[in-house]
Amino acid sequence: MFSGFYAWQIEPFWLEFVKHKMTIKNLPDHLAGKTLMQISDVHVGNQFDYNFIIDSFQKAQRFNPDFVVYTGDYVNYENHKQYEQLEEVFKHAVTGNLGTIGILGNHDYGLDWAEQDVADEITSVLQSSGIEVLSNEQRHISGLNFIGLDDYWALNFSPEYVLKNHNPEKANIVLCHNPDVCDLDVWSGYQGWILSGHTHGGQCKPPFLDPPILPVKNKRYNSGVIDLFDGRTLYINRALGHLWQLRFNVKPEITIFELEAD
Ligand SMILES: [Fe+2]
Predict the structure, then answer these.
(1) Which of 154, 166, 189, 208 could anchor a disulfide with 109, C-beta 3.0 to 4.6 Å?
(2) Would you write out the chain's pLDDT as a tens digit for each of its 262 residues?
């Protein structure tokens, strides 16, 4: 199933565009060969020069993606200053020809992941940048059905209803910031892809060793394609931004999936 995937490097020192095939059940014929781009963990704030994100967005837009999904952690939240910074960066947001969807991550909920007003502000910046934010909701766009879960560690984690009501006859994709959610009993038999972020691939990975800094319970959930052996396939994007400047052997990533019928 994954024999066709490969990766290449555009920027030798930084951004890597990683390309994978994405096989989807019930994919309408007109979507075969279309692209879905995943961007995750942008972390706009004071920890690093966010012109890197703007540059990356400009490069990404040149791929002319059909769908773009953002899987959370838009800011490294310290105070209200991040709203303006986010606005400045997301003026350049990458958008899809057919649709652009986002979900929130823990950092989008401010201090202790517990500030609803921060999440509301961030949501409104995203919406005005052309990104439709889903919170335990599904949205059908041009033949793809996006199921967007809210963040596991934050205030509005409540995936049961939307998963219970998903239609397995549709071409579904789940967006879920924190991959640990895969191990919870909330999936109602869902089969298909789950796109996550949150781990930053461990961010600082000594060569040949497992990543030492992984903010997940399940240490298998590091990065890349992970077969969950029950009809679900997890993909963990290594993040575009950083939480601190040090990033060793884990390059920032933007993923480009090419859709194909099962
Ligand atoms: Fe996160």
Answers:
(1) 154
(2) 443 333 333 433 478 999 999 999 999 999 999 999 999 999 999 988 899 999 999 999 999 999 999 999 999 999 999 999 999 999 999 999 999 999 999 999 999 999 999 999 999 999 999 999 999 999 999 999 999 999 999 999 999 999 999 999 999 999 999 999 999 999 999 999 999 999 988 765 555 555 566 788 898 998 999 999 999 999 999 999 877 655 556 789 999 999 999 8
- Which pTM was predicted? 0.92
Give me ligand 1 centre to Cα 82, in Å. Answer: 16
Query: Which residues have a beta carbon within 5 Å of ligand 1, which is an ion?
Result: 73, 105-106, 198
Distance 9 CA to ligand 1 centre (A): 25
CA of 72 to the centre of ligand 1 (A): 7
Find the 29 Cα to ligand 1 centroid distance in Å. Answer: 35
CA–CA dist 204, 156 (Å, integer): 30
Cα 31 to ligand 1 centroid, rounded to whole Å: 30
Max distance between CA atoms of the chain, in angstroms, equals 46
- Residue 216 Cα, ligand 1 centroid: separation in angstroms? 10
d(C-alpha 146, C-alpha 44), whole Å:
25
Nearest Cα to Cα of residue 178 among 234, 105, 232: 105
What residues are paired with 200 via a beta bridge? none
Q: Round the CA-based radius of gyration of the chain to a whole number and report it.
A: 17
